Amino acid sequence: MTEIKTINQIRDEGFAALIKALGPGDAIRYINSFEQGSGNYTEEKYQKPDEEFDVVVSRIKNRNEPK
């Protein structure tokens, strides 16, 4: 019967595989590309009303204008 690995064992083996495949620097960059985030999206998504399309387009245009 196969031994059930702990989450720490799985993480160690996974990171070792990333280092082997990508090298140490790119393995760290890959791990850092994930963000756990915070809060409760399911509740928070209903707290901010949807913006009108024109308002969003205007905000994007204003953000991209040189200052």
Question: TL;DR of this structure?
Answer:
The chain has 67 residues and is an all-alpha fold. The chain has helices at 7-22, 24-32, 41-44, 53-64. It has 4 helices and no strands.
Structural class: mainly alpha
**Amount of helix:** 55-70%
What is the string of SSEs from the N terminus onward? HHHH
Multimeric organization: single chain
Radius of gyration: 21 Å
What sort of overall outline do the alpha carbons produce when their principal axes are compared?
elongated
Tally the beta strands.
0
How much beta, percentage-wise?
under 5%
- Please work out how many helical segments DSSP would assign: 4
Distance between termini? 65 Å
Taking the sheet with the most strands, its summary is: none
Q: Spans with pLDDT under 50 lasting ≥5 residues? A: none
Mean of pLDDT: 86
Give the SSE layout.
Layout: H1 7-22, H2 24-32, H3 41-44, H4 53-64
Helix pairs in contact: 1-2
What characteristics describe this protein?
single chain, about 70 residues
Account of the 3D structure:
The chain has 67 residues and is an all-alpha fold. The chain has a domain of 33 residues. 61% of the residues lie in helices and 0% in strands. The protein is built from 4 helices and no strands. The protein is elongated. The N and C termini lie far apart (65 Å).
